[in-house]
UniProtKB/TrEMBL annotation:
Entry keyword tRNA processing: no
Name of the protein described by the UniProt record: Protein kinase C-like phorbol ester/diacylglycerol-binding domain
Species of provenance: Arabidopsis suecica
InterPro entries, alphabetized: DC1 (IPR004146), DC1-like_CT (IPR054483), PKC_DAG/PE (IPR002219), Vacuole_Formation_Reg (IPR053192)
Organism lineage: Eukaryota, Viridiplantae, Streptophyta, Embryophyta, Tracheophyta
Superkingdom: Eukaryota
Kinase keyword on record: yes
UniProt region (Disordered), positions on chain: 1-29
Amino acid sequence: MVLVEELSDVSSPTYEENQAYSYDDDDDGSLTPSMVFDQIMGPSLMLPFHEHPLHSHYSSTGQCDGCPELRENGLDGYNCDTCGFTVHKECAESSPEINHPSHQRHPLTLLTHGLPQEADQDDKCRLCGEKVGKLVYHCSICDFSLDLYCARNPLSLVVYFSKGHEHTLTLMPRLIHFICNACGLESDRCPYVCPQCDFMIHEGCIYLPRVISIIRHEHRISRTYFLGSGDWKCGVCRRRIDGRYGAYSCSICSDYAVHSRCATRRDVWDGRELEDEPEENEECEEPYRIVSDGVINHFSHREHDLRLEDGLTNIRDENIRCRACVRPVYSSTLYSCMQCDDFILHETCANLPRKKRHVLHNHQLTLYPDDNIVMDFPMLRGVFLCSACHRLCSGFRYECCNIKLDVRCGSISEPFFHECHPHPLFQTSLDSKVCVTCKQESDYVLTCIDCDFVLDFKCATLPPTVRYKYDRHPLKLCYDGDKDITGSYWCEICERKMDQKIIFYTCESSGPTTHIECVLGDFRYVKPRLHFEFNKKKWEVALNGINRPGCYKCGFRCKGPFVVVSVDYDNSYVCSLLCLWKGETLVYDSIRD
């Protein structure tokens, strides 16, 4: 059945016809400027609705002037070099006039320079609500507009979907303010309605799954169109849920509910409908087997047993690191290998679960040891970039699909408490925000529901105390950004003035202060003496010496506690991750054998 009727059939000009717009007649056969231009850009095309010639065009991120559709394979169409006009091929071939099922009273005319200024309605498509471009179908009598995507893909006038509603739903293609019974969100156009039930719903909410499993809750949750009275709070965004409208709820936990839109977010739900599917048993293998009192066999080091040791307060060697978190052991209780000298795990790291749910991914993450680490882009072997904090790491990692988290970021759960803020923090949205403590924008942040406090994963996982080799007292993490401070702070290491609104380390006893990057550096979480590959070049992590060598990329002396040294070239030191990337053409090529 043809849903959209084209009232005018205008075929695109043929290649030969288009030559008339691009090539000038010249009896001597020499190349004209227009011919040279066409040899570079390809043959030009003249369309009836555009005054300039168009050329074939492809863009991975381009926006079409005719429709809001963003395609995974990019924009394949035409572009005007004179005015920048860009369209999909389908939009360029649109008929000048159509009859559309959502507006059957009058035909719609294709406008080629956007809506007229005298149009009463806003500049949005009547069906989807997206802003219309230069090409738009319009009825001037009814002030009715459609973008070209909705014109090509008309909504069904009636829908019967028993899992969405027991009666037939009818499209109301008009501007009308309503609250969707399924998601509880207000909208201003084109609901599907059931008059006998006083029921109105978004087109996209009709097909919401009935039973799902989300990463934020251990039990399955089910869709309902009426929660009922109560003080409902969403288990994802932590905001109030209006019990008069639809949501997802847990039949086991009577007080747990989630907004319909929050429950079906791509980072929360894995996309599977579980109605009539049997429950899955999420058994997780223990990280170690108990051999005897104080002796275990850990999954990451099955060849030897580990013994529990305590009270090692005299360990100050920076080279002795936990294999999981790559932090110094200092005075922590730890497990050490009974045969190897360099395999050590903090007791807390030895107890990390093999699988866990995490707020940043819609599947369970699996814990992997520090061997066989490979990343395709950027091209790394032996180390990895944490997806949340973007640190270079060499320890254990939680991994699934395209996400890799170091054990610090992987261990964050909700509610999260941090000493620099009195309220609990939650991962509530996918929007990037600026971290309050470091003033940098991040894609992955924890937010406070009670105030505007935002903490990114990098700052959330900073060690609360660190040791500085020239201070016998540990340095403590400090954030005074919300206080009125008089006087100035200077970094003990780089001797530069510090921004008192940015988080830093200080010693309360003797008074020195340091920048985070100066006392930790960018290679703090890579095991010292480790060899790794980046972009097919070999590097070694080394302690920074007292003379502080110069970085061959930026020319400044290396100020952090660790540097990376080229294995292939002498005296090639790099001070930071930024300098390691600098000047490199990143290779996107699998390095798996």
